[in-house]
Task: inverse folding
């Protein structure tokens, strides 16, 4: 009787979660799939999917994955040593908080701040003038887009890696040193393998939203960078071709689920 009551209580707690998933996850995805089969005249058609597999959209898809890969790679290269050093500091939680705080600032405000920094008369060009390089076109370039994107995503990469490193049992490191392992061998054979779950989580957190960036492509890259997110925005808000926008969104959702599946699988095998 007590077990039945416990099961009933657990099922009741599941109701809000199930309703949330149904209304805000499953229903929107089904709606997007439905619109993907509607052409610009409002008729049921496979034309949107045929159009997606043309060179223009395939090139855009490859471009999106390439930029997402670069953003994730540079974020990881900066975040891992940063997270590692944070775990060695005296007030590591305070330093971690200071790194996370900028992520609370509105994305639009940060984008406009970087427009000022990378502008012709901004701080970056003033510094280049001082060191003798001269004024450069920094804004509306691939460099500015990737730099700002990495800056925005770094806290989300640092946090899971920091947690993974911070939970390593110090006894394992002592054992590695007692067995004659150098610092590099200890890191390569003990620390890094034990933090792979954090790395995979960070990659997942950064790569997936990086695929669908659109605001930064306009404000920072000046539309020189075209991603799937930019194309979706164009079709929904400019051309009013909701069917094509939904079709791109379908493939973006598939890509996101595939990445989640792959990273989750790697974490399970690495556990």
Result:
């Amino acid at each position: 009787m007590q077990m039945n009551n416990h099961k009933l209580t657990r099922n009741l707690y599941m109701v809000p979660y199930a309703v949330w998933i149904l209304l805000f996850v499953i229903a929107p995805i089904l709606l997007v799939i439905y619109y993907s089969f509607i052409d610009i005249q409002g008729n049921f058609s496979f034309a949107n999917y045929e159009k997606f597999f043309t060179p223009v959209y395939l090139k855009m898809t490859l471009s999106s994955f390439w930029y997402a890969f670069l953003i994730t790679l540079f974020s990881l290269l900066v975040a891992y040593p940063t997270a590692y050093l944070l775990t060695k500091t005296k007030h590591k939680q305070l330093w971690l908080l200071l790194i996370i705080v900028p992520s609370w600032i509105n994305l639009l405000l940060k984008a406009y701040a970087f427009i000022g920094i990378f502008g012709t008369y901004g701080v970056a060009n003033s510094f280049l003038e001082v060191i003798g390089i001269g004024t450069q076109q920094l804004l509306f370039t691939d460099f500015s887009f990737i730099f700002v994107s990495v800056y925005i995503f770094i806290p989300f990469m640092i946090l899971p890696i920091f947690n993974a490193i911070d939970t390593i049992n110090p006894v394992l490191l002592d054992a590695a040193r007692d067995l004659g392992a150098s610092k590099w061998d200890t890191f390569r054979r003990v620390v890094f393998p034990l933090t792979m779950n954090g790395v995979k989580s960070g990659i997942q957190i950064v790569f997936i939203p990086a695929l669908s960036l659109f605001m930064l492509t306009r404000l920072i890259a000046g539309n020189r960078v075209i991603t799937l997110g930019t194309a979706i925005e164009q079709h929904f808000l400019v051309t009013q071709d909701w069917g094509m926008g939904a079709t791109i969104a379908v493939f973006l959702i598939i890509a996101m689920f595939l990445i989640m599946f792959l990273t989750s699988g790697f974490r399970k095998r690495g556990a």
Q: What stands out?
A: The two ends are 37 Å apart (CA to CA). The longest helix spans residues 2-36.
